[in-house]
Amino acid sequence: MQNINELWQQILEKLELRISTVSFTIWIKPIKPVDLDEKDNLVIASPSVSAKNQILRNFIDKIADCASEVSGKKLNIVVLDQNEEIEYLDKSKKVEIAPSVKDEPNPFTEEFTFDNFVVGKSNQFVYSAAQAVAQNPGSNFCNPLFIYGGSGLGKTHLMHAIGNYIRQYSPELKIKYVTCEQFTNAYISSLLSPSKNKAVMEFRDLYRNLDVLMVDDIQFLSRGKEIQEEFFHTFNELFSLGKQVVLCSDRHPNELPTLEDRIKTRCSSGVIHDISKPDLETRIAILKKKSQIEKYNVDEEAISYIAERVDSNVRELVGKLKEIFLMAKIKGKEMATIEEAKEIFANQKEEIKNELTPEKIINVVCSYFNISTDDITGKKKNKEIVEPRMIAIYLIDELLSLPLVNIGKVFGGRDHTTIMHSRDKISSDMKVNRKTQTLVNEIKNILTSSF
Ligand code: ADP
Ligand code: MG
Predict the structure, then answer these.
(1) Is 154 in the pocket of ligand 1 (CB under 6 A)?
(2) For the segment 5-41, what is each residue's pLDDT rounded down to a tens digit?
C-alpha cells in the first residue's frame, strides 16, 4: 500500500489549487497525516482544537474530494486534535518509532535536524560539538556544552537536532529539553503544590534521572535563591554521574550575572562556544536549503537579493524568503523572482507606517476563528467567543501596550480589571498549555508578518 506520507503529499498538492494561499498556509499545511486504516479511514491531526473545528467547518469536503481522487476510492476523513492524536497513537500502537519512546509525542521539532542545518564558518565548531554530544552523550570532552550567540542564529535548532538524533539512534536514553522558563515554572509549581514534599521529590526524580538534560535560554534564570540552588544541584548531580548537560544562552556565561560562579566554573571544564552571524555564502546556502525543504520556488537572483539585505538573524532571513514566495503565489506565479523580492523590501518602510491597531488585531483574530467582530467585542459568553476575545485582548496588550482602560473601550466598554483578567489568563495558560501557546504564537506571527 502507498505510504501515508506520500499519499498526504499528493492530497496537499491538489488541495493547494483549491484553497486560498492564506487558508492553505494557516490551516492545511500544519495538518499531519496519522493513519490510513483497513476501513478506509484517513486519520489526520491538526495542532489544536480550534484548528480542528476550522477544518471540519470549512475544508473537510475539499479534503475528502482530493483524498478520493488521489487514492481512487472513497476515503473517510477523521480529524483529530493534538490530544486525540496522542490517544489514538497510544491505542493503535501503529507508530513505527522506537519502543521506549513510542508513548510520547516527539518533543523536538522534526525539521530541526543536523541534515537541515547549513554549516559555515560562523557555526561549524558548535555544529561539530553538538554532533559529538549527540553521538556520544556524556563523554568528557563536550560536557557540559554551552552554546551562546544572538537571537535567531540556530541555537535552539541545534539542541533539537541533538534531541532528534538521540531519539532516533539511542532511544533508550532519557533525554529532556526545556526552556529555562519551563524548568523554573515546573520547580515553582512543585513548591506551591499542596503536597509539596512529594511534588519536589517528583520534580527531582524527573530532572536528576536523565541521560541528557538540555536547558535553552539560560539567560532567563532568575536570581531567586531557591531556583539557583535547585538548578545547581540538578546540574551537579547529572554532571557527577557523567550525564550530558547542554545549555544555551544569548551571552557568554561570564556575562550572565544570574549564573552562579560555581556553575560557570563547571561550564569552563566543558566546551563554551559561540555561534556568530553567518556570512553571505552561508546565508545563500541556508536560503537554498529552506527553499528545498519547504518547496519554495524562489529563483537564485531573488535569493541573493534577500541574503545581501538580511545579515544578522537567520529567522528573519527565512521569514523574508517565505514572504517573497507567498507574494509570488498570490500573484499566481510559479516562481518568485527579484520582482517580488524588491517589492517586499520596498514595502518595509510602508509597513512601519502601516502600523498595527486594535481593530486590525481584532480582524485577524476574528478571521482566524471565523467569528464576527460584533461577537468578539459583544457580550456573548460561550467558549467559542470567549477564548478568541481573551486572545485578542492579550495580543493587543502585548503588541500595542495600550492602557487597559483603552483596551476596555474597544471591547464594548469593559472594565480594566476584566481586561487584566483576560490578559493574565492567556498569559498563564500559555505557560502550561502548549496548545494555547502555539495558537497565540501562530496568530502573533500572522500579525507581525502582515503589518
Ligand atoms: P536561536 O535559538 O539561536 O534564537 P533558532 O534555532 O530558533 O535560533 O533558529 C531560528 C531559525 O533559523 C530556525 O528556523 C532555524 O531552523 C533557522 N536556522 C538558523 N541557523 C540555521 C542554519 N545554519 N541552517 C539552517 N537553518 C538555520
Ligand atoms: Mg532559541
Answers:
(1) yes
(2) 889 999 999 999 888 877 788 889 889 999 888 888 8
Which DSSP letter does residue 24 get? I
Which CATH topology does 358-450 take?
Answer: Chromosomal Replication Initiator Protein Dnaa; Chain: A; (1.10.1750)
pLDDT in tens, 140-167: 789 999 999 999 999 999 999 999 999 9
Top pLDDT among 347 and 308 is at: 308
Range(s) within the chain of domains with CATH label 3.40.50.300: 124-275
CATH number of 280-352: 1.10.8.60
What pLDDT sits at residue 97?
37
CATH 1.10.8.60 residue ranges for the chain: 280-352
- What is the full DSSP assignment across 187-252? HHHHHHSTTHHHHHHHHHHHHHS-SEEEEE-GGG----HHHHHHHHHHHHHHHHTT-EEEEEESS-
Is the separation of the CB atoms in 340 and 303 below 8 Å?
A: no
* Rounded distance between C-alpha atoms, residue 125 and residue 143, angstroms: 15
Cell of 417: 480589571
Q: Is 162 in the pocket of ligand 1 (CB under 6 A)?
A: no
Minimum mean pLDDT range among 79-88, 212-221, 425-434: 79-88
Cell of 364: 485577524
Determine the CATH number of domain 2-92. 3.30.300.180
What CATH fold (topology level) applies to the domain 124-275? Rossmann fold (3.40.50)
Cα dist from 165 to 45, 97, 215, whole Å:
24, 13, 17
Q: How confident is the model at residue 247 (pLDDT cuts 50, 70, 90)?
A: very high
Is there a contact between 119 and 127 (Cβ–Cβ < 8 Å)?
A: yes
Nearest C-alpha neighbor of 282 from the set 153, 133, 131: 153
Over range 116-138, report the average pLDDT: 95
Numbered ranges of CATH 1.10.1750.10 in the chain: 358-450
| Listed ranges 102-106, 150-154, 355-359; the one with the highest mean pLDDT | 150-154
**Is the shortest distance between the CB of 283 and ligand 1 below 6 Å?**
no
* Ligand 1 atom 19, closest CA: 154
Give the number of whichever ligand sits closest to the CA of residue 179.
2
